[in-house]
Amino acid sequence: MRMSKANLGKLPQPLVEQAVRAALLEDLGQAGDLTGQATLPAQAEACARLVAREPGVIAGMALAACAFRLIGDGLTFEPRVGDGVTAMAGETVAQVWGNARLVMAAERTALNFLNPLSGVATLTRAYVDAVAGTKARICDTRKTVPGLRAFQKYAVRCGGGANHRYGLSDAILIKDNHIAVAGGVRQALEAARGFAGHLVAIEIEVDTLEQLQEALSAGADIVLLDNMDDDTLTQAVKMTAGRAKLEASGGVTLDRVASIAATGVDFISTSQITMGAPPLDIGLDIEIG
After folding, report:
1. Which residue out of 205, 214, 247, 266 is catalytically annotated?
2. In the CATH hierarchy, which top-level class contains the domain 13-120+277-287?
């Protein structure tokens, strides 16, 4: 199996099993696969290949494997392409064989994880490639499908991107509405510092260069530059002069991301890589004869 050289980290097995078990139960209901039971002999054997119909970066192989494992005894699953690796069109990314009814019953659940997660990884790789040669890192956001955040963020890593905070409890991100209620940039930052433990990161969002100056004067370590055009981002980088890490967000498209990176920001975060990625076309083909 071709494995990625990147250190992706492993998805926790209990998390994988919980998600896959829920998906299988949703699909099987109380009666199981009626079509398979009606048309396939109980002892029939099958060998199937999971084939990439188009080139793309693979992500979610552990979830696919888990689907074929949890469906019942009698299947062998063999991945051929590891997560984080680009599969070519027509390439077999995994193979499964054993009881035909079980293969058919787990097929859709396996692909329902593998296809969209590989889509996230593939689009992330396109963004990462677009900013190659700059210092900017592509990051995700909290805009994810409910219940699938850990898997979508894992897929971002498979594509070469980096993870922003996983949830509200990971770090403090002071946004415009927080600033409005707190009474200003400095007031919000000072309140956050008084509350946070020494290991909790604090980032603040600004909409203007005036707010950026106020954040820098207040000693901000990380500043999110929200919906700024490239000229304003360039000015922000010059104004900051390395005193804080800068993250650009808002209006980040694949067509524009290279010009954002060229301004000199440290991070570029976008929800497009999780919420706008089309699924990678991977299908299951039964081998006959």
Report:
1. 205
2. alpha beta
